[in-house]
């Protein structure tokens, strides 16, 4: 069977008796063993248990059972707890950390019948737009091994693009689902904040408590939009320890079933960072497809919340939260640097620096401003169904392992910008907690994948997912990397 088949196609073949889960699993494992030395996506293989699970899935099907993912090979981001496998978040001091129970989403995968092939690589502490760490080494982009696969779900995106399983689960705080999808030419969905329970997707050695993290979500990755929906339906729902005791989830249907019925705002420019020509072309390719199908496509509206303030609020909430979780040394030095900043300097770099020493009072003020933005989005989505915009300003960039990410620079059409400024587009959906679907939107002149994101109304995740599916039919979707793409990299496992 073709290894790049979708989960939906695999499920149909399994139900028809055309293939067994053992055969699908063995094919996936053979491909990993053949190709992953160059890509280094699967950092923790679990092939023995995967084969046993595949045998169990075939036996269950023979008994007449049928579950959404029964017998389908998948991967899991390393940051999810999984009994019997280490959860390190790439931090060397926790290389031997073995969790006591599966994360909620790992349990839901297994309950749905999925066969877990292993875990995929991440950056240190999940805090980078690339995926490399001292324990497992560097994950390469399957399209060009000298470039990053993205982060922090870069291992999962690379695995899907290389054919290592049909589905994967990742997480997103700063574009960690969407950016790797964009860089590797696959699909990903950042759910509405709180839609999918995150318990067990936690940095070691913290216990897996049922907390509601600010900004961060867990979500699906796949090679088609329909597969995203299939996996989201498995993942969605409250934690059984908290809201799940009283609440059941019923997502509203997509607002429209025809491409021509959608009302879409297209944004290709951000006030704080330019959009590279390759990404601009991808955005406009999608915009043209929508217009050609008869959709209402607008380029400007006074209903759009202020993008500059949105990015400032996002950086304040993101960085202050990150410092709270991973405390930094030399706070006194940071405060001295912040005190020396000019009041006129409102750059994102300075915003991030100020946020590193935020007080609780300052965080509450930022959180209050966020609620005004959420209200603005509610008014916006009364008139529009989705936003089409970039995920980052460029396609995948070359590996950059400068130990001080604040010193890194991003090349946008020959001009350098602060590395983390590229998060401005990811924050557009993350700050207010909106759902966003990453879709392939063509190739750069160098042949690299280019993706865009479709941002939808809160808790109406099926709307951007349906739009993604209709656009896939119109402009095409995932394409397998060309044979021989890039040069093999040395794995440092």
Automatic annotation (TrEMBL):
Its EC number is 3.5.1.4. It comes from the Bacteria. It comes from Amycolatopsis alba DSM 44262. One of its GO terms (cellular component) is endomembrane system. SUPFAM superfamilies: Amidase signature (AS) enzymes (SSF75304). This is Amidase. PROSITE patterns: AMIDASES. It is an enzyme of class 3 (hydrolase). GO terms for molecular function: amidase activity. It holds the Pfam family Amidase. Keywords: Hydrolase. The keyword DNA damage does not apply. Residues 23-463 form the Amidase domain.
